[in-house]
Amino acid sequence: EELRNHTHNTSVTLPDYKKLKAQLEAAKEESSTPYEDVNKATDELLTILSQLIPVADQLQNYYTDRTFEKDNFVGSDNLASQYVPLADQFNAAYNAYDLALENRNNELYTERMKEFTDENRVNAVNFIELNILLSQTIDIIDPDGNTDTQKVETNLQEITKRLNELQPGTKPETQAAVKQYQDAVKEFVAEARNYIIINSSYGEAYTQLYVKYNRMIGRANEVDMNDLDAVDSKK
């Protein structure tokens, strides 16, 4: 918002667009999805990032080098006029990407929930319910300031409770994946709590929260749900 309003500060903090682009490219290469809407949203996001990153780099360098001391912020205003529209496009594309991922994950979870419930796989059901609760939580966090913070905090407490109840499975690779997932959930919970208490007025905080959320979803997708109740499945 400060860049949008041409507020002249002596520093600027921008999201790590390069890191996000690298993560998206790696995920696309390692595990291609059959879902056309997810592929399309990913490609559109990568295209916008390719345009946004050079401008963000110029803007960051402008402030790092303190060029504003020489040109009285003329360069800042010029770069901001390029950056802000691209950042708006990025936010819209990121939300579309997130929605596509969420829709596909929810479809998968709905199908597996019935299967695991019928087979009495309590741990797998808890894992799915945990991810559904996480999805509901990110949905009720409103970047425009209309967040029901009490509801978010209630959800975060329930998420922590369910996370503590999650068992790691029996295979070493599943145990490792569950540990990484648990760590990612804890990071998201901390970020979400900071957002509703402290950072909601910081324009880029919402984007950073979504980055944590999607990283967590990536970890969730690495967990073999079939192994979460491996002992019960053999009964």
Amount of beta strand = under 5%
Helix share, percent: over 70%
List low-pLDDT spans.
Answer: none
**Radius of gyration (Å):** 20 Å
Tell me the structural class.
mainly alpha
Number of strands: 0
Q: How far apart are the termini?
A: 58 Å
The structural domain count equals 2
Q: Describe it for me?
A:
With 235 residues, the protein is an all-alpha fold. The protein has 2 domains: 1-118, no CATH class; 121-235, Four Helix Bundle (Hemerythrin (Met), subunit A), CATH 1.20.120. 74% of the residues lie in helices and 0% in strands. It contains 9 helices and no strands. The protein has helices at residues 17-30, 36-64, 68-71, 74-118, 122-140, 149-165, 172-197, 205-221, 230-233. Helix 1 (17-30) runs antiparallel to helix 2, helix 4 packs antiparallel against helix 5 and helix 5 packs antiparallel against helix 6 (149-165). The model has no long low-confidence stretch (mean pLDDT 88).
